Amino acid sequence: MFKKLLSLLFILTITILQAQDRKIPVDSIITSSHQVTIKGKKVSYNTNTGTLPVWDKKGNIIATLFHTYYYRTDVDKNTERPLVISFNGGPGSASVWMHLAYTGPKILNIDDEGYPVQPYGVKDNPNSILDVADIVYVNPVNTGYSRMVADKEGKLPERKNFFGINADIKYLAEWITTFVTRNNRWKSPKYIIGESYGGTRVAGLSLALQNKEWMYLNGVIMVSPADYKVIRVGGPVSSALNLPYYAAAAWHQKALDSDLQQKDLLEVLPEVENYTINTLIPALAKGGSISNTEKEAVATKMAKYSGLSKESILDHNLDVPTSFYWKELLRDEGYTVGRLDSRYLGIDKMAAGDSPDYNAELTSWLHSFTPAINYYLQEELKFKTDIPYQMFGDVHPWDNERDNTRDNLRQAMAQNPYLNVLYQAGYYDGACTYFNTKYSMWQMDPSGRMKDRIQFKGYRSGHMMYLRNEDLKTSNDDIRNFILSTSNQGKPAKY
Fold first, then answer.
1. Phi/psi of residue 314, each to 5°?
2. Where is the signal peptide (predicted)?
3. What is the DSSP pairing of strand 147-148 with strand 454-459?
């Protein structure tokens, strides 16, 4: 009996020690050297992978952010090269999607349309923007390997320090300053890029970096940005803005009437956009006061543009939810369509219902991204840890109050003549629709005085347009050209 107790005590002690060791180092870097061919030319670069602390006002470490930093080693004055600081969204998403599929020197093993293939892993990215800019991919707290850090008594910091629109912007702006200082990048033209909720994040960071950290940017890149002043508010405008996306998704799935289907997508969309702005928004604004004649006419037109039946549109009083659209469009064929990318198809348990059982596109993406990022960081970049890499982390409750990020971006642009903005969106994205992006862009600069510093680029894919190989090339080229045209070497910042 005594020997058994000793054995159990030994096992318990080992277990406790292992549990204590299962924590992320708060300040660490592992450097490795690599080479990739981009646009037919060899590029030599180093990768710094590791963690960098977040401090509170008293100088105590309250969190550590895991990041991966790529910088060229075969150029002169590399500390003066453009620097791109990259975030994904969620909130609560790791910085994995653009890291391993878009701008970085490595991309997933996937097919040309973005579907998983085995063996899982990564390959060289011949379209990476590393030839013109160095890149750091940042994981906010509780995503990737980033974590809160307990004090000496073992108490974690308050969650409100990190998990909210403005808290997120505040600590990330301070962290960026630390990163730029440590890596001697103050002389570099700087760009921030954010996807989905990351669009909200970088819009807010543009002003916080400028007015709180005294760091001026050359560019903000919004990839499939989420503007919650439209998405969460609802109402006639928010609802109507979905129609051009419905038309794009139906066109891709060959669900439109033949007269529209035989046209190219970019011939169809301007017609639908015009109808949305000039007819559908006013019609929805009338609510129950709309005449039966006008309601019938609008439903007929919406059916033509969306691929849905007139009856289903009338059943929704012209206000068709996106979740219903994903379920309804191909219901008769036995499929649902994806939320973030409506090229993807799913199969539900029952044909009945108002929304899909699952997001067909997200399950496909997690299928290929999760094994790839875990393999890549541990085996190729040699960052070894037993901490799980969190594709999506617990960041709730998230404080959405005081969202002034759209106007923050406008203010930052007004104050900084160097600052330009590039919006990128996929036509088949049903979560952050391309027309919502256009609308947000128009509202961001209502005076129109800065529209020559704002660009929009659309792609024939979804939320992560870069998963489609043709769009991977085009969208990276668009960022590359944006950086080259806005680095402003020798040009004074003045109006």
1. -65, -35
2. 1-19
3. unpaired
